[in-house]
From TrEMBL, chain A:
<protein>
    <recommendedName>
        <fullName>Signal recognition particle 14 kDa protein</fullName>
    </recommendedName>
</protein>
<dbReference type="Pfam" id="PF02290">
    <property type="entry name" value="SRP14"/>
</dbReference>
<feature type="compositionally biased region" description="Basic residues">
    <location>
        <begin position="67"/>
        <end position="80"/>
    </location>
</feature>
<keyword id="KW-0694">RNA-binding</keyword>
<dbReference type="GO" id="GO:0008312">
    <property type="term" value="F:7S RNA binding"/>
</dbReference>
<dbReference type="InterPro" id="IPR003210">
    <property type="entry name" value="Signal_recog_particle_SRP14"/>
</dbReference>
<dbReference type="GO" id="GO:0030942">
    <property type="term" value="F:endoplasmic reticulum signal peptide binding"/>
</dbReference>
<comment type="similarity">
    <text>Belongs to the SRP14 family.</text>
</comment>
<dbReference type="GO" id="GO:0006614">
    <property type="term" value="P:SRP-dependent cotranslational protein targeting to membrane"/>
</dbReference>
Automatic annotation (TrEMBL), chain B:
<dbReference type="Pfam" id="PF05486">
    <property type="entry name" value="SRP9-21"/>
</dbReference>
<dbReference type="GO" id="GO:0005829">
    <property type="term" value="C:cytosol"/>
</dbReference>
<keyword id="KW-0694">RNA-binding</keyword>
<keyword id="KW-0963">Cytoplasm</keyword>
<dbReference type="InterPro" id="IPR039432">
    <property type="entry name" value="SRP9_dom"/>
</dbReference>
<dbReference type="InterPro" id="IPR039914">
    <property type="entry name" value="SRP9-like"/>
</dbReference>
<dbReference type="GO" id="GO:0006614">
    <property type="term" value="P:SRP-dependent cotranslational protein targeting to membrane"/>
</dbReference>
<dbReference type="InterPro" id="IPR008832">
    <property type="entry name" value="SRP9"/>
</dbReference>
<comment type="function">
    <text>Component of the signal recognition particle (SRP) complex, a ribonucleoprotein complex that mediates the cotranslational targeting of secretory and membrane proteins to the endoplasmic reticulum (ER). SRP9 together with SRP14 and the Alu portion of the SRP RNA, constitutes the elongation arrest domain of SRP. The complex of SRP9 and SRP14 is required for SRP RNA binding.</text>
</comment>
Length: 80, 79
């Protein structure tokens, strides 16, 4: 994930005309798995929508991590 | 590759690094289901910070930081 200013050409050398300052920045997202790659650019107005979808995706799929052991701890505390 | 010990430290470093050089900074999330590990990295090709976790509660924090950075990136301001 990085900031995207819409420029697809390298930065001109010194003395050459500089590209115009972008009026609005976007957010570039890339994802890869093995050999397949996908990418997208998010506009300002789509940030909320994308983030909601992305949050659902990671919350639903990153389920291989260790869960909090709240119950076990509280039980052992009451016993002690 | 400097690993950061705590999430709060990482989040602080990440925002600092981003605000220092917005256009060059990138944020990378890696998730390995089979190892049950989540690695997040932020770098501007000069300095780099990484954080690795195995705990599910960090997913929520990751979501918060992602939202913050995304909003920073897709904004009209220079920062």
């Amino acid at each position: 994930m990085k900031r995207y200013d819409g420029l697809t050409k390298p930065k001109p050398r010194k003395g050459r005309p500089q590209p115009p300052e972008p009026s609005e920045y976007k957010c570039l997202i890339r994802a890869s798995l093995g050999n397949s790659k996908i990418s997208t650019v998010i506009n300002q107005k789509d940030v909320n929508k994308f983030h909601l979808a992305y949050a659902n995706l990671i919350k639903g799929n990153m389920d291989g991590l260790k869960k909090k052991e709240k119950k076990g701890k509280s039980k052992s505390k009451t016993k002690a | 590759m400097p690993h950061v010990k705590t999430w709060d430290d990482f989040a602080r470093h990440a925002e600092m690094l981003y605000l220092n050089d917005p256009i060059k900074t990138r944020f990378v999330v890696k998730y390995r289901h089979c190892d049950g590990k989540l690695t997040v990295k932020i770098t501007d090709d000069q300095s780099c910070f990484m954080y690795q976790t195995e705990h599910a509660q960090d997913v929520k924090k990751l979501e918060k930081l992602t939202s913050l950075l995304m909003r920073h990136m897709a904004s009209k301001e220079n920062k």
